[in-house]
Amino acid sequence: MLFAIDIGNTNIAMGIFHGETLVENWKIRSDAEKTCDEYKVILRGLLRSSSLDEKQITGAILSCVVPPLAPVFQGLCRGMFQIKPLTVGPGLKTGMPILYENPLEVGADRIVSAVAAFEKHGGPCIIVDFGTATTLDAVSTRGEYLGGAIAPGVRISAEALYAKTAKLPSIEILKPEKAIGRTTVSSMQSGLYFGYIGLVSALIQRFKDELGGGAAVVATGGFASLIRSEIAAIGFHEPDLVLDGLRLLYERNRKS
Question: What's the domain count of the chain?
Answer without folding.
Answer: 2
